[in-house]
């Protein structure tokens, strides 16, 4: 009798244990399934440009809709700060790390640490100097291609004289490197003169305005403003207004800008800007799609460049501007 009782007790204990484990596994897998995806995003600066504002908004909105937990940090112009922020996010074991680098170089250690931690490293906006085994995927703009589109357009203008002012973006960012390479190579190939070539810290509109005002004060003549974003192009226009220099559709100076914010396109339509090269900041939905594909174990394109176009006085309309999302 005693034997039957102890066997029954052991069996009951075993069933209880099995049920508990099963429940734990079920809870664990349910927890795992329900666990929000946490994405660390290392952004450049909070208020660098209108492009950046639209870019940050795109991440916030798309990640909220997707139900991702977003951990966004801002380097505020400091590359070393971005590096330590990225390392911190790896320590916090985010599920994915997205980097928008102030500088192209110097990301190897972070990428290796992410790889060791099993955290997919995704580049957004600006391609970084990393070998393909060190990043999972990228959603970036081809800045050299953007610049070459501007050079091709400039060639069609058949100006009497090409005296070009280059207002570059943040030195060492892939956006600045690509766009500057395009105009420098284009000027060499077409025997154009670059009369001024300076990068503005933080893509700053005021710095651009001051640089052009100082240049005008030296008496330097120019026929093209090649500004590597809309904000700096607007700064140059403010300086030319103050000096009574005409520009745009009926002026003596062609103004080339990049980003194609809505207000920049409005300046094309009004004849102030001659060309605006699109650089699309709406990376939020693209990164959400990429992460969902990675989560589902699907094969993803490692190097995805964003499709972008150009707008000039002959192609822009108010309807096009009204339909744009940024
Ligand atoms: O052109 C500029 C922003 O990385 C493409 O950074 C981006 C650039 C953009 O501040 O306005």
UniProtKB/TrEMBL annotation:
<dbReference type="Pfam" id="PF13407">
    <property type="entry name" value="Peripla_BP_4"/>
</dbReference>
<dbReference type="GO" id="GO:0030313">
    <property type="term" value="C:cell envelope"/>
</dbReference>
<keyword id="KW-0732">Signal</keyword>
<keyword id="KW-0762">Sugar transport</keyword>
<dbReference type="GO" id="GO:0030246">
    <property type="term" value="F:carbohydrate binding"/>
</dbReference>
<feature type="domain" description="Periplasmic binding protein">
    <location>
        <begin position="40"/>
        <end position="274"/>
    </location>
</feature>
<dbReference type="InterPro" id="IPR028082">
    <property type="entry name" value="Peripla_BP_I"/>
</dbReference>
<dbReference type="InterPro" id="IPR025997">
    <property type="entry name" value="SBP_2_dom"/>
</dbReference>
<feature type="signal peptide">
    <location>
        <begin position="1"/>
        <end position="19"/>
    </location>
</feature>
<protein>
    <submittedName>
        <fullName>Simple sugar transport system substrate-binding protein</fullName>
    </submittedName>
</protein>
<comment type="similarity">
    <text>Belongs to the bacterial solute-binding protein 2 family.</text>
</comment>
<keyword id="KW-0813">Transport</keyword>
């Amino acid at each position: 009798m005693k034997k039957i009782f102890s066997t029954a007790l052991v069996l009951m204990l075993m069933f209880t244990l099995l049920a508990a484990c099963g429940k734990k596994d079920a809870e664990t897998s349910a927890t795992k399934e329900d666990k929000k995806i946490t994405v660390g995003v290392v952004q450049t600066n909070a208020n660098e440009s209108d492009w950046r504002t639209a870019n940050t908004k795109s991440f916030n909105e798309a990640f909220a809709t997707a139900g991702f937990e977003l951990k966004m940090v801002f380097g505020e112009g400091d590359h070393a700060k971005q590096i330590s922020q990225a390392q911190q996010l790896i320590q916090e074991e985010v599920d994915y790390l997205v980097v928008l680098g102030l500088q192209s170089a110097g990301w190897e250690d972070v990428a290796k640490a992410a790889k060791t931690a099993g955290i997919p490293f995704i580049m957004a906006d600006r391609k970084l100097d990393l070998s393909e085994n060190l990043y999972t995927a990228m959603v970036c703009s081809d800045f050299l291609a953007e610049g070459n589109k501007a050079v091709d357009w400039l060639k069609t203008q058949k100006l009497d004289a090409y005296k070009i002012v280059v207002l570059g973006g943040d030195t060492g960012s892939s956006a600045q490197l690509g766009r500057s390479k395009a105009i420098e190579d284009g000027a060499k190939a077409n025997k154009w003169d670059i009369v001024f070539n300076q990068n503005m810290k933080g893509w700053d509109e005021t710095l651009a305005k001051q640089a052009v005002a100082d240049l005008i004060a030296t008496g330097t003549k120019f026929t093209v403003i090649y500004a590597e974003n809309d904000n700096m192009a607007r700064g140059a226009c403010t300086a030319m207004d103050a000096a009574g220099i005409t520009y745009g559709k009926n002026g003596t100076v062609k103004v080339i800008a990049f980003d194609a914010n809505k207000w920049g396109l409005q300046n094309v339509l009004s004849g102030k800007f001659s060309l605006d090269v699109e650089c699309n900041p709406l990376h939020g939905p693209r990164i959400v799609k990429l992460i969902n594909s990675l989560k589902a174990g699907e094969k993803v394109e490692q190097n995805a460049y964003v499709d972008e176009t150009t707008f000039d006085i002959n192609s822009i309309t108010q309807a096009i501007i009204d339909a744009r999302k940024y």
